[in-house]
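Please, structure for the following, as tokens.
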Amino acid sequence: MDLKPEHLKKIATMKMPFGKYAGRVLIDLPEPYVCWFERKGFPKGELGELLATLYIVKLNGLESLFKPFR
């Protein structure tokens, strides 16, 4: 998976549109929730791509990449 710079900005600003954590900024989603999506399947479209990228970020402890976007 390629880390796209535009995805990083969206992950730092876009809010989760549905579910238990609706309204929470994607980067602030709990890691177990993101891992659940990885196991069950990411949604289709851009949100799925963003969550898949977020999974890689959280898995590798790269949350500090998002400080400039906050």
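Residues 49 and 59 are 15 Å apart (CA to CA). The mean pLDDT is 92.
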